[in-house]
Amino acid sequence: MHLLGEARPCYVPGAMTKTTEAQAASKKRIAVIPGDGAGVDVTTEAVKVLRAASAASGLALELEHFDWSADRYLRDGTTLPEGAAKMLPEKFDAILFGALGDPRVKDNRHAADILLGLRFQLDLYVNARPCQLLDARLTPLRDRAERDLDFIIFRENTEDLYVNIGGVFKRDTPDEVAIQEQMNTRKGVERILRYGYEYARRKKLSRLCMTDKSNAIPHGHGLWQRVFAQLRAEYPGIESRHLYVDALAAEMVRDPSQFQVIVAPNLLGDILSDLGAQLVGGMGVAPSGNIHPRKIGLFEPVHGSAPKIAGKNLANPVGSVLSSAMMLEEIGCPAEAEAIRRAVEASVRDGKTTSDLGGAMGTREVGDWLADRVARHGVPGK
Ligand code: NAI
Ligand code: MG
């Protein structure tokens, strides 16, 4: 299964002369935000592999780095600079992101401003998190083959408990009250469900499972139920199913082969995708894309800044490398994406991995190996 949807042009057709239009279409501009800790380690390797793929195919790739991170925040107070959400889509085709989180920033202020800021301000309502088993040895499940684990979770990415509505009353007293509101809108629920259905249709997949906890959260998740009833009627060719989130978690472990597309509210999708990541080899291999169709997307490994292993040449770069492949596919470079994915599959098959996957290589050595593999095997059709 390919990870993402149709290629989209990054220019306005008809707005330029033929020559400049062709040049613009083949040149891709990427904003790189490595962030903190292991985010920096893995992004360095993903960039290495991206450069190898672009060199092998002749794709003009322009990368610009941004130092938005804990270091920058602690140095001069900058989190997400003013105007960033306007500048990024004007200047770039996509964003490659590492991770944010630093023990020195206790309240995670910079991470909330930068990552949640970009997700919300760019309205990246789809969080696409594929869970694909690259080698049967990597799953902790017994007797499971690669074909048994190949599904994608679409996590709603702009609503739910993440909208930060609420407050604390009588703080630090025995009567303390903390309220955090969960927001669901008809527009928000409909667009993520529709994205899931359209993805299934495009990829010729036949099954979609929507999950919620509407038995216990009847107001918020009741809306999910009503919108789901409407959309499943619009897509009769796709087998629609609903599972409460607790049952879904159990079923993902009991028999993951039954799932192809899962659509989930924000928080539930966050939790389920870590479970999915573990089923296919752990946090080190899980990629993701924050997407709004036809707008700029932000691609990042699912994992965080992993402070314990950061800077020690231990972090697995595969999650970031696969995120860059998702990014390439989304900006209209599917051949380069495929070359990168094949290299990752080969590395896992040959045991050219970091220690979390049982290998003996470091972050940099895996990055070098992948870049070299892409260079030697080239890009399909180029
Ligand atoms: P984490 O994802 O950083 O680490 C969880 C576990 O996975 C740890 O055992 C870690 O060593 C391991 N791990 C993570 N990435 C790995 C890799 N590439 N290779 C091998 N093992 C890897 O999550 P945790 O510990 O909950 O959070 C650490 C920091 O990251 C916190 O500040 C948190 O807020 C932040 N965070 C940021 C995210 C983002 O920027 N998107 C997402 C999740 C957490
Ligand atoms: Mg998470």
Number of domains: 2
Ligand kinds = 1,4-dihydronicotinamide adenine dinucleotide, magnesium ion
Radius of gyration: 21 Å
Question: What's the CATH architecture name of the largest domain?
Answer: 3-Layer(aba) Sandwich
- Biggest beta sheet attributes: 10 strands, mixed
Give the total of beta strands: 12
Tell the overall outline.
globular
* Biggest sheet, spatial arrangement of strands: 2-1-3-12-11-4-5-10-8-9
N to C succession of SSEs: HEHEHHEHEEEEHEHEHEHEEHHH
Q: Helix/strand/pairing class, anyone?
A: alpha/beta
Helix content: 40-55%
| Name of the CATH class of the largest domain | Alpha Beta
Q: Give the strand content.
A: 15-25%
Name its key features.
single chain; 382 residues; alpha/beta; Isopropylmalate Dehydrogenase; ten-stranded mixed sheet; 12 strands; 42% helix; binds 1,4-dihydronicotinamide adenine dinucleotide; binds magnesium ion
Secondary structure elements and their pairing?
Elements lengths: L17 H9 E9 L1 H21 L2 E6 L4 H7 L7 H8 L2 E6 L9 H13 L4 E7 L17 E7 L9 E4 L7 E4 L5 H17 L4 E6 L5 H17 L4 E6 H10 L6 E4 L1 H14 L7 E5 L5 E5 L16 H13 L3 H16 L13 H15 L5
Parallel strand pairs: 1-2, 1-3, 3-12, 5-10, 8-9, 8-10
Antiparallel strand pairs: 4-5, 4-11, 6-7, 11-12
Helix pairs in contact: 2-10, 2-11, 2-12, 6-7, 8-9, 10-11, 11-12
Bound molecules: 1,4-dihydronicotinamide adenine dinucleotide (NAI) and magnesium ion.
